[in-house]
Structure formats: structure tokens, C-alpha cells
Design brief:
There is one protein chain. This protein folds into two domains: 141 residues, Chitobiase, domain 2; 152 residues, TIM Barrel (Alpha-Beta Barrel). Helices cover 36% and strands 18% of the residues. The protein contains ten helices and 13 strands. The relative contact order is 0.11.
Amino acid sequence: MKDVRFSRLKSFFVTVLLGAGAVALRAAPPEERPLVFPLPQEIERVGEDFPLTEDAAILVPEHPAAEDLDLARFLTAELSDRYQVAVPVKRAARLPADGPVIVMGSIDNRLVRQYCREDGIAVDAATPGPEGYVLHVSAQRIVIAGSDDRGAFYGLQSLRQLIYRTADGLRVRGVRIRDWPHKKFRGIRLYLPGRENLTFFRRFLRNFMALYKYNKVIIEVNAAMRLDRHPELNAGWIDFANSLNYTRRSRARGPGMQAQDSAHHDTADGRVLEKKEVASLVDYARSLYIDVIPEIPTLTHSYYLLTRHRELAEIPNAEWPDTYCTRHPKTYDLVFDVF
């Protein structure tokens, strides 16, 4: 059953990728592919590319903010782990006259402010605006100036997409970008992953959702997280998932053999995660500026509530009841206690 659960999870993520258009982008001829996706509000190809070698340095102020260090560590890890290029992080009081250097941060970063002041670039909380950034890449400098910390982070995600490999090593395409979101809410809906897929889920958050600047993930939970006051729901959830997996079904049948609501029993691969595992996943998403919205099904798709509480079901004699009775006095005691 392990292989079946993993196959379903993998198929779901492929569907997400198709829906987002990433596959279509890769299939397009190189000359038709955007340099950055989603396409920035303003982008111009300019000058020479930046040679990304170990002679470069990522500069942070002498007394860097935690957000500045987070950006520097993110890029250092990306270059080391993906490209095996070690670019050091150094502290500086001022931007040097020449490079090669990389500077990233919000407009609160003094090195970023110096660059914007000297080059006459307008960046503040209102320009380009919330989650907005400016990214300039030349032969000697890469500068990301965010209107806020989220904007600086999204500028880094655009930078990740501009890196390419040549026979002579890594380079970053020379560009001038001014960007802000097309939409405030940019989200994907997913199931809570199973324990064996937590590492894969984290990679998906970092290398797809963050890379393409999604800022919301809706995660369906059901009874797939430990419910301390309702262990019967966790136990019933595993019974329910086993029943459907062992009979190779995607949904249960009602008393008249009618198809009921889809089961969503793939949530956490039909098993239960501990609260600390879910909390760790939420913390990691937040570190990528992705807000987690938990989804707890109510009324319909409520199998997880009713596996051990048939007395609350609209149709108690169903194989696996999917809808609770809205008029039962104890229904909402259970629903709100789970919330």
C-alpha cells in the first residue's frame, strides 16, 4: 500500500505543476521562455551577465538584520547545494566601487539604501509597493532592493531563475527588473503530506511555491494530525483509509450504492502526523513567506468526524458516513472541539 499512496501523492503534484504552467514553460522553445516566471511587471535585458564564481561575495551590513542574514544563507545554500559553488558572506560598511558583489535586502538595509541613492532608484514602502522589489544585475553587481522583506525575498526567487551554466561556469543574466504582485492571493491547495513524504513536501514548498512566488498554501488536515482530546478520530481515520486502500476505491458507497463525496483519504497517506511535525512544516512554510491556511472539512466530506461517531451522521447506516446531522445537539460540540 505504501507504493499506492506514494503514486497518488506524486500524481497530485504533477497535476499541480500542469495547472501552474511550469511544464508548458519547459516545453516552449528557449527563445519563447520568459527569463522569470511569473513575468515581472517591468523587465529589461541589459549589459553583460554577472560571472557567478567563488571570487564573488554576498555583502551584508556590519550589523545585519535577521532578514538580511536569512537571504544570504538562502543564496549560499542554493549555490553550494545545487551548483557546488561556494560564495562567502561578508560584512561591509559601504558598497565597494567594484565587484563582483551581491547585495540583497529591503530598503531598511543600509547597503541597499546606498545603492538606490547613488543610482537614483526609487524604492520605499509604497514604491514598487508591498511585496515589490527592484533587481539589477550587471557584470560587477547584483542588487535586490525590496519595498519590504517579502519583496526582497521574491527578488531572490527571480535571481534564482536567472542563473544559468556555461562551459566557463555559472552566470546570471544581466537584467533590470521592477516588479510587484499581479495578485495579492497566490495559493495552492494540497493535502497534508504523509510522514515519508515530508522531505519531498518541503522541497516542493522551496523549489516550486517559493520559486514562483506563491504566498498561500491551503492544507487539508482531516483527522490526519494527532487530536489529543479525540484519539478515536485518529484511530477511525486509519480504519477508514485502510478500508478504501485495501479495496482500491476512491470513495465509499451509500446504503443505496450511490456514490458519496470523495474520500480525501490520501491526506497524510492515510496515517497520522504528530502536532510537532505539522508545526515544523508550518514554520518552514512561513520562513519562505508562505502562509498556511488549514482546511478542516465540515458538513460534507466529514468522514473523519463520523468513523467513530455514527450517532451524529445524517445517514448512520452508510458504510462510511460522509455528512453529519446539522440538527443533532452534539454535532457542533465535536466539530468545534476539533477546531
